[in-house]
Amino acid sequence: MTDYSLKPRLLLADDHEDVLTWVETLLEDEFCIVGTAHDGEGLIEAAALLRPDLIIADVVMPRMNGISSVRAIRDLLPACRFVFLSMHNEPDLVREALAAGASGFVLKVAADTDLPQAARDALAGRRFVSALIHYPD
């Protein structure tokens, strides 16, 4: 029997159910998935209720984008860490996400290899940006 209390608590947010299911499958052995959200406002509500250790969110979501949601959640949960999972790789977007408080930015095409490491790095206080993104540190 698995003791979920020993695993870091993750909240996932994406407006595509298939992406949420894929990410859950990718991370469920190492992390405790405490919930999902389908839009930015729902992410804020879920974070306040579930108090995760880490949030993995898409940048582009309805009702509020992921970056604005992270800014709001940082005020509610200052110890929470954030990783963005996105199909967009523009350096300005990555810069904005990290400035908003994210510890990581992972491209969906690289999630199989990058997302578990980005989650571990974020929880350890380190930054992770997918190598496919041409982002100057």
Which helices and strands occur, and which strands form pairs?
Elements: E1 9-13, H1 17-27, E2 32-37, H2 40-50, E3 54-57, H3 66-76, E4 81-86, H4 91-99, E5 104-107, H5 111-123, E6 128-129
Parallel strand pairs: 1-2, 1-3, 3-4, 4-5, 5-6
Helix pairs in contact: 2-3
Overview of this structure, please?
Helix content is 40%, strand content 20%. By secondary structure, the chain is an alpha/beta fold. The protein has a single domain, classed as Rossmann fold. Helix 2 (40-50) runs parallel beside helix 3 (66-76). It starts with 8 loop residues before the first strand and ends in an 8-residue tail after the last strand. The model has no long low-confidence stretch (mean pLDDT 91).
Radius of gyration: 13 Å
Average pLDDT number: 91
CATH topology: Rossmann fold
Q: Give me the count of strands.
A: 6
Low-confidence stretches: none
CATH class annotation? Alpha Beta
Query: Structural class given helices, strands, pairing?
Result: alpha/beta
Strand content: 15-25%
The CATH architecture name reads 3-Layer(aba) Sandwich
Number of domains: 1
Outline = globular
The run of helices and strands is EHEHEHEHEHE
Quaternary: single chain
Helix coverage percent of residues?
40-55%
Corresponding CATH superfamily: Response regulator
Q: Count of helical segments?
A: 5
Strand line-up across the major sheet: 2-1-3-4-5-6
